[in-house]
Amino acid sequence: xxxxxxxxxxxxxxxxxxxDADRLLLEMRVILxxxxxxxxxxxxxxxxxxxxxxxxLLSRLRRSQEEKAQP
Length: 71
Description:
Layout: H1 2-15, H2 20-31, H3 36-43, H4 47-69
Helix pairs in contact: 2-4, 3-4
């Protein structure tokens, strides 16, 4: 339980490294579960560009989390 709590805190800190726009995009897709088509409509942005952006953001967060986990 403590390890999970520590990991979650680390994830929250990583999210704060993102811009407000990137954090909003991830929140809409990952937390709220909106489909890309709906996000694209709300943000008036191309769906393909949003897909790429989310992929890159998630990769960046994973990389950052792995780097911080290493001694």
